[in-house]
Amino acid sequence: MPRLFLALIAALSALGAATGLPPPSLPRDPSEGIKEGWTLLVFPDTQNYAKYAKNQPNWDRVCRWVSEHREAWRIGFALHQGDLVEQNDIATGGGQGGGDQNSESQWASARRGLDLLGGKIPVAFATGNHDYGPRSAENRNSRFPAVFPLNWNPRTLSLAQGGTLLETAPNAFGVHTLENAVFEHRPPFGRPLLIVALEWGPRKAVVDWAREVLARPAYANHLGILLTHSYMKPNNERSGQNEPRPRVPGNPHNYGTGKGGDTHDGEDLWQALVKDAPQVELVLSGHEMGAHVGYRVDKAKAGHDVHQMLFNAQGLGGGSFEKGNGGDGWIRLLTFEPDGRTVSVRTFSPLKLDEGKSPWWDHPRWNFTLKLTR
Fold first, then answer.
1. How many domains is the chain partitioned into structurally?
2. Suppose 73 and one of 33, 182, 203, 327 were both cysteines; which one would form an S-S bond, judging by CB atoms 3.0 to 4.6 Å apart?
3. Cα–Cα distance between 232 and 124 in angstroms, integer?
4. Does residue 99 belong to any structural domain of this protein?
5. Could you tell me whether strands 176-185 and 165-170 are parallel, antiparallel, or unpaired per DSSP bridges?
6. Cα distance between residue 34 and residue 13, in whole Å
7. What DSSP string describes 258-323?
8. Which residues contact residue 357 at a Cβ distance below 8 angstroms, ignoring those fewer than 6 apart?
9. Is residue 354 part of a domain?
10. Which tens digit of pLDDT belongs to each residue from 158-211?
11. What is the C-alpha separation between 225 and 308, in angstroms, rounded?
């Protein structure tokens, strides 16, 4: 316990030292939104909403709030960090901590909630380990491409079709899906965004493809964002960083999809992709629990800061078991301020709002400000 306490104190101190900026204000009335700037919405792992029938309405509520307040918060894009479901392919629900819903019901819940955003907000996904195999990445079979096909959201169609999708890479079975996709978003001001969304434990072919896209001169001056499921840990290190071999539980190398070696953890991605990318300044991930959040800044080869963030909420609100509510409804609102460099990071819960409690997580690890290099 003392060692854990000291680690958390060190992590908190590292966050304050890394940002050095006052935290953003928290509106008394969240429905008022923002008066200037625009917002990038981030969903954490949401499998605990899907796996219990009683929690599925909570996921609907979260997505409904986002849809209803899209204009107030000027939400331009939404990112889901993966683990949409708890079990990708089981015929019957049940089991301790496993929920009471089969996979068909879980995927239907994930789709039903996000359909509330369809046609209004473009959405990118980083598929998680629970989105593969029967239960947790035993293999790379996934129902995700069938539930969220390329044309599921008009705002996420190709640029030629009036959407935001630039291109995709084949999944493990050679099919082009949203598992590996690059999007362009042009906000009302500032640099256009280049969002690179990758599959769980990305394979070498996928990382090679992403590296080639990021190296193209046409995107050199974009603001690059990497969206991937497993990258950061609550101790503010990347997964795989300073880890012994074999790696710790939860690392992509320890799953069925990683046993053959064709996978990347966070440190692998930093070395093979992020540090050499000329424009990536944000990396967003989920997967890890513990403190549920993490943050670090490193210099890329080109000299700019790369802000790397873990945000997860699946263990909150009662945890993963039947007593829980799915994750307390927490979502993250990243507001890009008018100067084009300042990003206000707020963590908000519609479920807390419904309970008459403060809907904001007012703590430096959950509510902070960062400054982009360019």
1. 1
2. 33
3. 19
4. yes
5. antiparallel
6. 29
7. GTTS----HHHHIIIIITT-SSEEEEEE----TTSEEEEEEE-TTS-EEEEEEE--TT-SSTTSTT
8. none
9. yes
10. 999 999 999 999 999 999 999 999 999 999 999 999 999 999 999 999 999 999
11. 10
